[in-house]
Specification:
two-stranded antiparallel sheet; two-stranded antiparallel ribbon
Length: 747
């Protein structure tokens, strides 16, 4: 009876006071979201509990409270799926065993509202829109695309651009709705660009135009990157026209075109043949093939090679021998600057792009024409006759060489990657040995010679050339260390005295200004002493410069001769590996051992290269680290060249090359990347994955920026080569951010 009475009392008390709420249940806190005193604590507790059932209540509170960013962040956090491990690390015990499924559908109405009701005058609203866009890009939830398109399609403004760019990036993630997403992005890219900043009449207008143009580039560049992520062949037309309308975004366009697949290649080849009607019309309407001054008002316009330059660059990224005839035909047109900047031509012509593309493709069909181009001009044999037997080598100096020098340099550099026979090797050796030839031409010829030769006698040729420069260096060193060194040392001492006088005078005036016993006349006298000392210093500087000039010149020549000698010796590594490996492709692949490994493994690889060269180069074991590294680079470069020329017969070596592609060594990675598309069997199952790893390894390293871009281009090629279905990688970075200047001109 007593127990029954107690139970009845408990029931009565509970009915009067209410049971305490469970702090581990979401509903305990969702009902407190409307209480100003409890709201912030409730949001924190709901975030920690991680229960997605709270999303609707949080969404209602977000709207009622003026859409604060904090609440939207919690909604997004609760909508994300969690693995059991993530739940455990977050102390969300309810989900430790099975994880937490995604709840993006529950969050979608609020994410959409953040996008469609954005108020650009309210920074909090813009911040919310940006976070909503990022979340939808992550979720790719059905129904999310419309809101993203809505904000991305708004006129671009400085206040709204951050949210617009996030929305554009998110659109590029909607690969389940490719057509709709790509259509929205193409409309953004097709917008006419505003006036270029260089057309401004004054600085004030220039600043206004630069801001507007920069915003345009930011949104357009993001849209091009997003199209690259979607990999839509139907976007090629838009991308090709954008390549010319906004050349500042060429890097982004290039990436997107390669990601688009073979359709892009076909359009680019049509441009080179002059058969792309829309591009032809664009050039006619905008006069893109002419430079008529920054403001477009010059009477005398200059021709440019923009129409050929850009497609030639991208065609190299397709590695297709079928495009070689179109590239070779473009070489029949005069070499012209890519663009002009401030009335000055760019440093490159369409020939730079064409030869680079031919090198990447590596097809032998281009060898004959390229060989004819570098063999043109003055005969190497005739030039050699002008040099007396036994004469000292000419001092290394850049420049000169005639009108066709630039073309010959480009042709020589490309030739070893195209030829499949021994034609031209002897002629290259003669150019390398010609003391009267242009220094840059000799350097290019020596490199090409070493990339092709497999004759032991050619090692002696290179060694003999090196010895001539060692001898010349010794001669200059003795000359420098004689009277010029004595005079230079004496001049240094005299100059040091003059510097000490100036330093003492400055110290004296400083001391005088802080000494209360000094009069104004004392301070003035000290200041005049400083002025006199500085005037004397100007005279002393000129005297010192004149006195040290003979030693500086002789010392510089001695060092230049020494570097030139080492250049010839380094090339021996390229011939040595060919002599050692002959036709053994596994031997060539063995040169990669350790190049992408630990520091100790890389050092071991360098030591192995040095050991290989010991019979050929006297004292090579005492070389410095940089020169020793160059031996390994030369060995690997030649090895990769031989493997690449083997083509599909060497496809069993694709994996070792892919594994080594993450090396930070520029020349080694470039050499690997030139060989890979020639030997890899397509479709390649793991090429994307391993090249993604290479891109990731080089991310953030400023010295590898352009090399990482080339790796990304190769990754995009393998994404569709052989009919493969591209995979989406979250580790691949966007193309570099666009910039308004410097840039090719609007014509």
């Amino acid at each position: 009876m007593r127990r029954l009475a107690f139970a009845a009392l408990a029931i009565m008390l509970a009915s009067q006071t209410g049971c305490p709420d469970d702090p581990y249940k979401a509903k305990t806190w969702t009902k407190k979201l409307t209480d100003p005193r409890e709201a912030e604590r409730a949001v924190t507790q709901l975030e920690q509990l991680g229960d997605p059932s709270a999303i609707p209540s949080l969404g209602d509170a977000w709207v009622a409270q003026g859409k604060p960013v904090r609440l939207l962040q919690v909604i997004i956090s609760l909508a994300r799926p969690l693995t059991p491990e993530q739940a455990k690390n977050s102390f969300m015990t309810d989900y430790e065993s099975a994880g937490r499924p995604a709840s993006w559908t529950a969050a979608l109405p609020y994410l959409q509202k953040a996008l469609t009701e954005v108020d650009e005058a309210n920074p909090r609203s813009v911040d919310s829109a940006q976070k909503a866009a990022d979340a939808l890009g992550e979720a790719r939830v059905d129904g999310g695309l419309d809101g993203l398109i809505d904000i991305a399609s708004k006129p671009v403004t400085k206040k709204l651009i951050s949210a617009e760019v996030s929305a554009i990036r998110a659109i590029g993630k909607y690969d389940g709705e490719k057509a709709k997403a790509a259509g929205a992005l193409q409309k953004i890219i097709d917008r006419d660009p505003p006036d270029h900043p260089r057309t401004a009449k004054d600085k004030e207008q220039g600043r206004a135009l630069e801001e507007k143009y920069g915003l345009f580039l930011g949104v357009t560049g993001a849209s091009i990157n997003a199209l690259a992520d979607l990999r839509v062949a139907t976007a090629v037309k838009t991308l090709v026209l954008s390549m010319y309308r906004t050349p500042e975004l060429f890097t982004q366009v290039r990436r997107a075109l390669v990601a688009s697949g073979p359709t892009a290649e076909a359009e680019l080849r049509k441009i080179l043949r002059g058969e792309n009607a829309e591009v032809n019309q664009l050039f006619k309407d905008k006069r893109l093939d002419k430079y008529c001054g920054d403001k477009g008002d010059a009477k005398d316009c200059l021709p440019t090679s923009a129409m050929d330059f850009y497609p030639a660059v991208v065609l190299g990224d397709f590695y297709d021998p079928a495009s070689v005839p179109d590239l070779l035909a473009a070489l029949d047109r005069p070499a012209l600057p890519q663009y002009y900047s401030d009335d000055q031509p760019s440093g490159s012509t369409q020939y730079n792009a064409i030869f680079d593309a031919l090198t990447k493709i590596g097809a032998p069909t281009g060898a004959d024409k390229v060989r004819a181009l570098w063999m043109g001009g003055s005969s190497p044999g005739a030039a050699a006759k002008g040099n007396k037997k036994g004469a000292a080598p000419a001092a290394p100096a850049a420049g000169g060489g005639g009108d066709n020098l630039a073309v010959r340099l480009l042709a020589i550099s490309a030739y070893p990657f195209l030829t499949r026979d021994d034609q031209g090797i002897a002629e290259l050796g003669k150019i390398a040995a010609d003391n009267t030839a242009d220094d840059n031409l000799r350097t290019a010829a020596a490199t090409a010679f070493a990339r092709l030769s497999r004759d032991a006698n050619d090692v002696k040729v290179l060694d003999g050339l090196a010895q001539k420069y060692f001898d010349a260096s010794d001669k200059k060193r003795k000359e420098a260390d004689g009277k010029p060194k004595t005079d230079s040392d004496a001049a240094d001492k005299e100059f040091d005295v003059a510097k000490k006088v100036v330093d003492a005078a400055k110290a004296n005036v400083l001391k005088a200004t802080h000494d209360t016993t000094k009069t104004a006349a004392d301070i003035k006298a000290a200041s005049e002493a400083v002025k006199k000392a500085e005037d004397d210093m100007k005279v002393a500087k000129k005297k010192h410069r004149d006195a040290t000039a003979p030693y500086t010149a002789a010392d510089g020549a001695a060092k230049a001769y020494l570097n030139y000698a080492h250049m010839f010796q380094t090339h021996i590594a390229r011939i040595e590996v060919a002599l050692r490996c002959k036709q053994d492709m596994n031997c060539y692949a063995g040169t990669l051992k350790g190049v992408a490994g630990t520091a100790a493994e890389r050092d071991a690889a360098i030591d192995a290269a040095v050991k290989n060269l010991t019979p050929y180069i006297k004292g090579v074991d005492k070389w410095g680290k940089e020169d020793r590294q160059a031996l390994l680079e030369g060995e690997v470069e030649r090895a990769m060249l031989e493997i690449g020329k083997k083509g599909q017969a060497a496809n069993n070596l694709a994996d070792p090359l892919l594994d080594s592609a993450k090396t930070d060594d520029r020349l080694i990675r470039q050499s690997i990347q030139l060989a890979l598309p020639k030997i890899a069997k397509v479709p390649c199952a793991n090429c994307e994955q391993k090249l993604d790893a290479a891109v990731k390894a080089g991310a953030g390293k400023s010295t590898l920026g352009d090399l990482n871009l080339e790796t990304l281009m190769l990754r995009n090629y393998f994404a569709w080569a052989g009919g493969k279905t591209p995979t989406v990688s979250t580790d691949v970075p966007d193309a570099p951010a666009p910039t308004a200047a410097p840039a090719p001109k609007k014509k």
